[in-house]
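User: Structure please.
Assistant: Input sequence and predicted structure:
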Amino acid sequence: MKISAAIIGFGIGKKHFDSIENYKGSKVKIICEKNIKLINNLKKRHPDKIITNSERVIFDDKTINLVSIASYDDFHYSQILSCIKAKKNFIVEKPMCLNEKELFNIKNQLKKNKTIKMTSNLVLRTNDLFNQIKRKIDKEKVYYIEGDYMWGRSQKLLGWRAEVKDYSIILGAAIHMIDLSIWLLKMRPKKVSVFANDIVTRNSKFKKKSFALIVLTFPKNILVKITANSACVFNHFHELKVYLKDKT
């Protein structure tokens, strides 16, 4: 099947655009962007594409069979529902939604529309290093995993993330390490404990927690500790340590 795609949001959506355009049999037909200055620039750079600030242009186009959602976090939920209603497959930036109620509604809607395919960008699964770890470790010997997601981009917290009511450093950053742990262990946690603070960003425009520490307890009492730090000095750094028991 040839892919005729649409992109919503052309910040990180630029990476979605490049990936789709460079994939055999796939082309982007429509780009939806709210920033008027960027729209004018996109029209010059991509005269062969439909450039619009209206999502309806995408959902009303019957030829579009893939929508790539790369908008701000608080728009994801409504855009996913629009995709499902219009019977369109979709890729969505994490997080796909911001609360449990939204998540269960998405799940129920997908159950009613089983032909729709969806995925999110938990991309660390495709990283060569993490794949090497997965191939080399014996998951039966794992007793502890430690993951740190250093998102040293504090200036970005002062943009739209500061305006989103339910923005979460866990959904925006730690989710990658949580997903890696579940992927490596092939099981889900039984218990979750979370601690967080806003010490670094307390006097800034960002009024939410900017550092989080998560402890996950998996079956067989395997423990996973994950941190998400959005105000560290590193620009962008991930670290994962897997501890294995010896033969004794």
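Helices lie at 13-21, 36-45, 56-59, 76-85, 100-112, 128-136, 160-163, 169-185.
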